[in-house]
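Milestone M4 deliverable, item 7.
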Amino acid sequence: IMCASAKYNTRGPALIPRMKTKHRIYYITLFSIVLLGLIATGMFQFWPHSIESTSDWTVEKRSVPADSPIPERGDLSCRMHTCFDVYRCGFNPKNKIKVYIYSLKKYVDEYGMSVSNTISREYNELLTAISDSEFYTDDVNRACLFVPSIDVLNQNALRIKETAQALAQLSRWDRGTNHLLFNMLPGGPPDYNTALDVPRDRALLAGGGFSTWTYRQGYDVSIPVYSPLSGEVDLPERGPGPRRYFILSSQMALHPEYRSELEALQAENGESVLILDKCTNLSDGIPAVSKRCHKNLVFDYPQVLQESTFCVVLRGARLGQAVLSDVLQAGCVPVIIADSYILPFSEVLDWKRASVVIPEEKMPEMYSILQSIPQRQIEEMQRQARWFWEAYFRSMKAIALATLQIINDRIYPYAAISYEEWNDPPAVKWSSVSNPLFLPLIPPQSQGFTAIVLTYDRVESLFRVITEVSKVPSLSKLLVVWNNQNKNPPEDSLWPKIRVPLKVVRTAENKLSNRFFPYDEIETEAVLAIDDDIIMLTSDELQFGYEVWREFPDRLVGYPGRLHLWDHEMNKWKYESEWTNEVSMVLTGAAFYHKYFNYLYTYKMPGDIKNWVDAHMNCEDIAMNFLVANVTGKSVIKVTPRKKFKCPECTAIDGLSLDQTHMVERSECINKFASVFGTMPLKVVEHRADPVLYKDDFPEKLKSFPNIGSL
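Output delivered:
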């Protein structure tokens, strides 16, 4: 046994190590395979849906025979209701269109030559942005919109006929219905058409150089020409304010006529104007695109744009220019001189807030035109320009998503993004609540408005107001708020006989806030607040004011305009009643508003403002302006040119505005209310709504509102 045991023991140790090594290699190999499988699965599961430029063997080749069908050139009459099939979009509870991207293919002609170049980096970024967005679907049957993987961003790189034939081969082409093409550099020498020359039939075009002749309004989308410098140069945001140069031009290869006019402008205005051009004496290795020169001076580009208040954007061979994006990034206000150019995303962006558009024939007057703009407005435009770039220009992703959102808003207009959401920077959006009335549609004209007249004891003037207001076609009811507890209103038989119900409400106390109480008798959405001495407004003026309110039912729409100003010497706000073009308030002695604001004024007015108004018998109109502006974040609308309103005969001692302390208290009101609200919600605007043709030499009987009144 001992010999056997010894024999076993001498063999055992030799076998055990060999068994362990064999199993170790096996398990390591098995574990490695499993681990690699898990990694690969995770990469495919969580990797973004990038559309990469891949080598030929991974992309399906598709032949385009010379006799393949070619789409029609492009129907200029196309609109969403004629060439777009909205029924493909179907019902979507999220109100989002679904976008399908065709798989990447390589199209070659019958000789094996490529129809187009490899997909560009910019188009790859655009497709990736779409595929990563909430618009994307990989189910072609659910798609509302189709985007080809054929890159037509730059027409210079295309074979026009063959590219059109490749588009026609797409499985869901159907004459281009519901297909979207992106193009930034249209046309080619010598004429440089302002829209893509590739025949595309009914396809929508997101184009970077549309003119008024080629843009199909409400169908195509005007997009920016992307600037590659946006992703390469980081320009830190610079605060608004005066800068070293007043006007700067940085474009190279300008038409000689334009350059000579700019140089004449520089010669006339000296160092405040800087005209740059291409550098001709750069050292080897310095990219010309990042430098600009003036005589022997070299400037870094686009950094130099931040040194100017205004930057000129002139048309080149193409209307759309990448320099517009560079200018916006620099926070420089673009001066756009390109007749007939459709500005990027102009369907939703208010370019008046961020740019100055000057006709080409007005170039010699550019300096004087820009000098007439107030500094405060310039600073707002500088902020807006930078924000437009950050929101809509800075990347191909931003451009793609803005384009899809515009199309989405057309398909689902009831869920469309508002003007404020498109145009207000985030700081402005956060400072106020959006429209609390939820009125996406215009209130019906048939409902009319309720006129509320606040009165004390000026009976003769009151009766004249009632008589005039009763002539307004849309008047539904007239409510008189009798604010005199020591005197009874006139007998029923003495009141004017009018065609609408007239109701007299007697108040328990003499308070100015009684005019804004939510009386049960108010059955219309629209309310006209009017004083008992406003006798000069004509029925045409009042009817027009009501029509304007119907289009802006969440705003105060009124006649007497007023302004608040900052007094730098006193370091506080000041009330201004002088006749100026700027307004930030309309007096509720004659103003339309939604009855909802009566509820807010009575029950939701911040702090002690309501009691303060009643105690001082002043400023209830300013308080209402503060309230509406704070809730909606919107400005008032002044209607008609009239500036003088008070009744010349109404000089009784009880006229509140005749008190010597009245104007002083009005300024104190503004400061008091701003303190309670914790902000200054009033918005200053230079805007007035007038009827069309009111000043034109046109037969009065053919005008809708002939009797608008004088200044």
